[in-house]
Amino acid sequence: ELIAGNHQIEEIFFRFTFFKEWDVSELSMGKYCSLRSQGDTTFTAIPVFISRQFRHSMIYVREGSEITHPGQLKGKRMGCGRVGDPPYHYTVGLIKKFGLRSGDLQWVPTGTDATARAQMLLAGQLDAALITSPSWYGLEARGLKRITGLQEHPDLGIFTGLTMRRAWAAANPDVPEKLLRAHAEAVRILYADRKVAIEIYRKYDPAASAQDCERLYDDIFVNSAIDRVPVMPRWAAESAADRLSADLPAARSFEYQRIMDMSIVRRLVADGFYEKLFGEGVKAEQEKALREGFA
Predict the structure, then answer these.
(1) 223-257, pLDDT tens digit by residue?
(2) What is the pTM of this model?
(3) Tens-place pLDDT, residues 164-178
């Protein structure tokens, strides 16, 4: 029997990483790579990528701020949920593209609520903050402006995926394939039926307006933000290593092909599962994924 929990994404990451409160969880691949590179084998992961670029959004500042470019963030107060959490690490990766290092900013932990972070920014308690969708929709009208967004830097390779407690996974060896098949069917519905996809999203995020949910869906659809054939690409692991290595040197030399078993996906590909589910049009995406992914 599946017992599902519905929490804010930062809370999910925190509670699963530190308290292991459930058996299967969405988790940042950056956090997972960090744990594995330090020798922590508590968790195992499968290539079910819950989200890609679409929900990780923007660096915002107040309207009228002297900061108009990310390179001007040096010495400024940057709001993040928690130093060392996934938003912190992908912000570090983002500012590196503008010549800055993590030590160049004053990091201000604000907790997991992105809306509260926006309020702190408006109140002048922060100089800038990373705000995730759909929280950032409509912020311009409240006096905030964005200076860059992760959607504009797809090479950063932001992934979250399904991880499991290793002991539990070993006791339930049939579950990973079942999860992969179920996820593929969910992705098929997502791209095939906009109305149903939005209705399902609103069920788990009732505070989001219909307009925001529609915009979120369109962002996903236009950018093909969720893969039909889930393979962990080598460039994504390299991107994670690059972000993590500033604070964790061991991440640079870790062999990331060891962290995720791709054998089930490759067997499903060989069996024609994805072509039967999505049609022959998925072939190009499938071939590209296999070329770029770990064996």
Answers:
(1) 777 889 988 777 777 767 776 777 777 777 777 67
(2) 0.75
(3) 999 999 999 999 999
